[in-house]
Amino acid sequence: MNFEEKLKSGKMVITSEIGPPKGTNIMPHIKEAEGIKDKVDAFNVTDLQSSVMHLGSLATSRLLAERGLEPVFQITCRDRNRLALQSDLLSASVLGIRNVLVITGDHTVLGDHPQAKPVFDLDSVSLLKVASGLMKGKDMVGNELDGIPEFFLGAVVNPGYEPQELQIMKMEQKIEAGARFFQTQAVYDLTSFESFMKRVLPFGAPVLGGIVLLKSAGMAKFMNKNVAGVNIPDKYINMMAAADKKDRPKVSISIAAELIKGMKTLCSGIHIMSLGWEKYIPDVLEASGF
Amino acid sequence: MLITKVKEREKIIAALRNKNIFVFKCFGCKEVYFPEEEIDSLLEEAGVKNRVARVDYLCREEFAEKYYKKYENILKDAEAVIVFSCGVGIQVLAKILPDIPVIPACDTHYINGFQGLTAQDADCQQCGECWLNITGGICPITSCSKGLLNGPCGGAKEGKCEVDKNMDCGWVLISERLKLLKEEGALHKKSTNIRDYRLIIEGGKRSEE
Question: Which residue of A has its CA nearest to B162?
Answer without folding.
Answer: A107
